[in-house]
Amino acid sequence: MSGQAGINSDFSPKILVFSTNNISDPGIDLAGSSHMHYPPSVTVISMPCTSGIRPEWIAYAVERGFDGVFLAADGEECAYLPDCAKRTSEIVRRAQELLEQKGYEPQRVRMSAICSVCAGPFTGHMKEFSEALKNLGPARKG
Amino acid sequence: MYVCHCGGNISDYVDVNRVVEAVREEPGVVVAREAMFTCSDASQQEIIRDIKEQELDGLVVASCSPRLHLHTFRDVAKRAGLNPYQYTQVNIREQCSWAHTGDREGATAKAIRLVRAGIARTRLTEPLQPLKIDTVPAVLVVGAGIAGLRAAIGLADTGISVYVVEREAAPGGRVARLGRMYPHGKRGRELINQLVEEVQKRENITLFTGAGLVEKSGSIGNFQVRIRVREPVESEIGVQVGAIIVATGFDLYQPREGEYGFGLEGVITLDDFLELLDAPGAGLNFRGREVKDVVYVYCVGSRQGAGGEGANRYCSRYCCNAAVHAASLAFDKSPGVRQYHLFRDMRTYGRFELFYQEALRRGAVFLKFDESEPPRVERGEGGKLKVTVKDLLTCGEEFELQADLVVLVTGMVPRENGKLVDILKLPVGRDGFFNEIHPKLRPVETVVDGLFICGTCQGPKNSSESVASALAAVTQSASILKKGYVELEPLVAAVDPRRCNWCGECAGTCPYSAIEREHYQDREVARVNEAVCKGCGGCVPSCSRGALNLKGYSDEQIRAMIDALAKEIC
Ligand SMILES: Cc1cc2nc3c(=O)[nH]c(=O)nc-3n(C[C@H](O)[C@H](O)[C@H](O)COP(=O)(O)OP(=O)(O)OC[C@H]3O[C@@H](n4cnc5c(N)ncnc54)[C@H](O)[C@@H]3O)c2cc1C
């Protein structure tokens, strides 16, 4: 794996989170209102449902300079689609394929269900993912 | 483009001025300002003036979560003659300043990225008109406690049909079991009888007791629900309603075995004590013995220290008042009774202070204890209970009290209602009670459109507070249904017929059957039925030709936001 050699202590991985307007975004809001910290290099785009994410967007984000993409899914709580979790994992699978084709590590995309009060789990995921991406190194090599 | 200080909630952690300067030159930006409170009247007026004077065709406000003020600023846009769907709310409070309070540099850089993304998205918005949906003039009320009953009557009087579903065999909830209540001294049972009589007078209210909700589908304006009833024969009834009000109430905290001596003969909860006080005849007796000394322990199951797993950290609000009121009821029944109230803090707010004063005047003794050194309740001599307490008001002097009865003033806890939460997708808060959108501005609405909550299912309340929130839910639901239609977000899926060559793939992904086939020029293409589409976007990734887009979240918009978020900050 390329990044290994050049682990840089200043490197703060850029993470793009896709959240959902009614469930995971309120959970992420709650992390903030409870002053629970996570790295500010995490930014969020909120959508109605993670089943509506095109895998191409995930690959595009990595190409544009994000080091990782996290799908904060609704899981069982999705108000729209009973099979939302299955659909979102399929999107992750397709995105991983795309990333590999383009020469990126598939570990740069992750998903997990984040509920509307899942402030703790969210910040935990961000810290963990951030650490994992530090080990992987920046997505853009050179 | 406006950036809010939110008093300091944002500007204490983010350099707001730097954010404004950093985005001033972004393509499309005409006005870039900061404001102490963008949601204040004065700032709203300023935004409206700018939009009109500069003939702006897009608006971005960077402030708090869209759940608080998306609608406020969409409305500002509308009042200025700008299409509300050309507005973008950027969340730099919950998702920036508050989450990165220790890193001003990082938070400021993040705010710049987020605002840039908001601007990029807004440049690609198009004016949209809300979708109109006809509403069914009927409401389902779940729970027939004092809140649910009062809501049903209020709605019926506006001409709306009401279906009330009550799980128990009789309506009334907790109040139906109460004797003389504070503050007016009226009996709970009588209050409920009065309400039930009013319910029965109204032909447009149907009350199902011994019943439960088993299924819900549809959305605001037109929900289909199925109700299961046990009597006269077990069966299911389907009804159509435009809105749903949940008034499922609370449960009483159940003390653990041994908690303040619970389990010992003579240690009872406040509700049991109230029942004794309500028993006919003079004198206060427990299991055939005269009660001469009563010790109350307050805050049982409420205001528990943060350490414990699943601790109830909140105050249950009704209990100080109910306990000092009980003191007077006890003196009425047995003037010579000695009463010792062991409390942590006295919270007889507002006018209820007078009941506290009355209890003091009539001779009740109040001793203040600390949570870390709680009173001990043990078996004493001569069939009495022995209570040992350190009184903070006499510098921690230890007292030993002999009691015939120890009354545990138990708090309110959320009721187990997992199945209902599942069916209605009710938002549950960290404390286990149901969550409104905004405690001040939208106190009975939930994140699910058309679904309202009221009474103690939201959190501890006394009965007048429960009724006040029930009537708020009446107003909110009736104001939707009386109009005859609701306007829904036009943020639904759309097909670009030039790119589509009907493969049918997308239609298969929609559980609502919102995608149909139609003729376009001389070809077959997909078409989205806007009234049926829920706007989830689940169909979007299925299209290999990129012909499907969700309005407000189009391929172009998402890519533009990614570009803006990834761009370096100079
Ligand atoms: C000991 C005690 C003394 C009190 N004294 C006073 C007083 O003196 N003055 C005062 O103002 N307040 C007093 N209160 C507070 C008062 O009881 C509450 O404010 C009031 O009961 C709240 O009404 P509610 O309708 O929200 O809930 P509840 O009274 O809990 O009613 C909820 C109803 O919903 C039903 N339900 C629940 N789940 C479902 C479901 N899934 N499907 C169908 N039905 C369901 C329940 O069976 C119940 O009938 C006292 C409370 C206690 C515990």
Automatic annotation (TrEMBL), chain A:
<feature type="domain" description="F420-non-reducing hydrogenase iron-sulfur subunit D">
    <location>
        <begin position="15"/>
        <end position="137"/>
    </location>
</feature>
<keyword id="KW-0479">Metal-binding</keyword>
<dbReference type="GO" id="GO:0051536">
    <property type="term" value="F:iron-sulfur cluster binding"/>
</dbReference>
<protein>
    <submittedName>
        <fullName>Coenzyme F420-reducing hydrogenase, delta subunit</fullName>
    </submittedName>
</protein>
<dbReference type="InterPro" id="IPR003813">
    <property type="entry name" value="MvhD/FlpD"/>
</dbReference>
<dbReference type="GO" id="GO:0016491">
    <property type="term" value="F:oxidoreductase activity"/>
</dbReference>
<dbReference type="GO" id="GO:0046872">
    <property type="term" value="F:metal ion binding"/>
</dbReference>
<keyword id="KW-0408">Iron</keyword>
<keyword id="KW-0560">Oxidoreductase</keyword>
<keyword id="KW-0411">Iron-sulfur</keyword>
<dbReference type="Pfam" id="PF02662">
    <property type="entry name" value="FlpD"/>
</dbReference>
Automatic annotation (TrEMBL), chain B:
<keyword id="KW-0274">FAD</keyword>
<feature type="domain" description="4Fe-4S ferredoxin-type">
    <location>
        <begin position="491"/>
        <end position="520"/>
    </location>
</feature>
<dbReference type="Pfam" id="PF12831">
    <property type="entry name" value="FAD_oxidored"/>
</dbReference>
<dbReference type="InterPro" id="IPR017896">
    <property type="entry name" value="4Fe4S_Fe-S-bd"/>
</dbReference>
<feature type="domain" description="4Fe-4S ferredoxin-type">
    <location>
        <begin position="524"/>
        <end position="553"/>
    </location>
</feature>
<dbReference type="InterPro" id="IPR039650">
    <property type="entry name" value="HdrA-like"/>
</dbReference>
<keyword id="KW-0479">Metal-binding</keyword>
<dbReference type="InterPro" id="IPR017900">
    <property type="entry name" value="4Fe4S_Fe_S_CS"/>
</dbReference>
<dbReference type="GO" id="GO:0016491">
    <property type="term" value="F:oxidoreductase activity"/>
</dbReference>
<dbReference type="GO" id="GO:0051539">
    <property type="term" value="F:4 iron, 4 sulfur cluster binding"/>
</dbReference>
<keyword id="KW-0004">4Fe-4S</keyword>
<keyword id="KW-0408">Iron</keyword>
<keyword id="KW-0285">Flavoprotein</keyword>
<dbReference type="InterPro" id="IPR036188">
    <property type="entry name" value="FAD/NAD-bd_sf"/>
</dbReference>
<dbReference type="GO" id="GO:0046872">
    <property type="term" value="F:metal ion binding"/>
</dbReference>
<keyword id="KW-0560">Oxidoreductase</keyword>
<protein>
    <submittedName>
        <fullName>Heterodisulfide reductase subunit A</fullName>
    </submittedName>
</protein>
<keyword id="KW-0411">Iron-sulfur</keyword>
<comment type="similarity">
    <text>Belongs to the HdrA family.</text>
</comment>
